Amino acid sequence: MSSEKSLPKAYYQYLHELQAVDFVLVELSLYLDTHRDDTQALAQLQQFQKRKHNLVAQFEASFGPLYQYGESQTDAKHWAWADAPWPWQV
Amino acid sequence: MWIYEKKLQYPVRVGKCDPRLARLLIEQYGGADGELSAALRYLNQRYSIPDRVIGLLTDIGTEEFAHLEMIATMVYKLTKDASPEQMKAAGLADHYVNHDRALYYHDAAGVPWTSAYIQAKGDPIADLYEDIAAEEKARATYQWIIDNTDDPDIMDALKFLREREIVHALRFREAVELLKEHREQKKVF
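Structure tokens for the assembled complex are given below, as produced in the milestone run.
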């Protein structure tokens, strides 16, 4: 069974913003798969990549790693990746 | 290689315990036109399809796993606090005696998932038409589930998933046109 903790409001705010930016990135990726040379779409993707990069850094500093296998910054004392909550618990 | 992101693609809010709705949602977990079928269908077709559309199959196939996780989250949250009596009243006694509240890849009627649900013909046009049909069927299924609930939180997440099926179908239609253009170009020497 899970340990469902109550999370601060900021967790949901950051997460929601990240999900919104990721939606744009997913949508543009699929579009570019069939429109490889659309420079406007490419520029938009690059713009949102920067936003994602900043958001991920802010989220991870407060709430722990978002990506596995060493893709996220690691703390020297504690392996936070394996900590709850998992996405279905929040 | 895949990298897991420790978040859902879209927020899934569930305000109440509702195992009846969970039973219906299982259709999109382990049903013929569900998210597991979709992910495995597209990722498996990549190896024999022309290079021009491998990126699309990879990206849509990967997104389907994010959708599978959203459905799992809904089912988990709708059933986690259900008593055996509530599971029984929702028609989930058969599920409960085998799996307790664990998720399992079967459809709303309890039929286990089978690879017979997905096709791989090796003919690019045939495979992409199969993919378009799969997306349209999944879109319809989401509509039938939406028609069966009045929970605004669940409806919000299901409407997101329904819209994604529409976008995927559109992209697959474009992929068909790209391959047709490519085929016609090759005939000109």
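The helical segments of chain A are 9-34, 39-63. The mean pLDDT of chain A is 94. Further analysis is deferred to the final report.
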